[in-house]
Write a structure and sequence with these properties.
This protein is mostly helical. It has six helices and no strands.
Length: 174
């Protein structure tokens, strides 16, 4: 499960890098937006369709990280608040790194609002997906420990581990 998460995470990050760090051939470029929420206000002023496209795109760009980062971590028994904090911090740092790298890419513009929206997207997906998936995995693990077979799986053969090995005492050299 962790390996599949790692592959999906790498694929997603490659797509994000291609979208955000490729040079664009545009006739003009707007100035960098370093004022919080100014870009969101401008998008909302352009109309609901344009606002949904711009704001939704920024929310969705890094949103899969909210589920992929905990999947790669592979922990089931972890504090939900600590998991959320780690995931959101990683998403924010990745978004900040992308924004800093965009300063040297022709046609790409730094926008503080995209940093905020990317981080909110990561947090929303994490809150919506990860607690439910972890609870389901804990229930399945508990059912296996009690000897109840999950419905969708084939029965497995019980393997005994045998007796505990013992180490004979070795005398200390004089």
């Amino acid at each position: 499960m962790r390996a599949a998460g790692g592959v999906l995470l790498a694929a997603h990050l490659l797509v994000v890098a291609w979208i955000t760090l490729r040079p664009l051939d545009v006739p003009w470029v707007s100035a960098a937006n370093l004022e919080p929420l100014a870009g969101i206000k401008a998008d909302l002023a352009r109309g609901p369709e344009q606002a949904a496209r711009q704001i939704g795109g920024a929310l969705l760009l890094l949103a899969p990280l909210g589920a992929l980062l905990p999947l790669v971590g592979g922990r089931i028994d972890v504090s939900p608040l600590a998991s959320l904090a780690r995931t959101v911090a990683a998403g924010a740092l990745l978004s900040l790194g992308i924004e800093l790298l965009q300063t040297g890419v022709p046609g790409q513009v730094v926008d503080i609002d995209s940093l905020f929206l990317n981080t909110v997207g990561v947090a929303l997906v994490h809150v919506a997906v990860v607690p439910a998936v972890r609870a389901r995995l804990r229930r399945r693990r508990g059912a296996r420990r009690r000897g109840v077979r999950p419905r969708a799986h084939r029965p497995r053969e019980e393997v005994t581990q045998g007796s505990t090995p013992t180490i004979p005492r070795v005398g200390i050299a004089p």
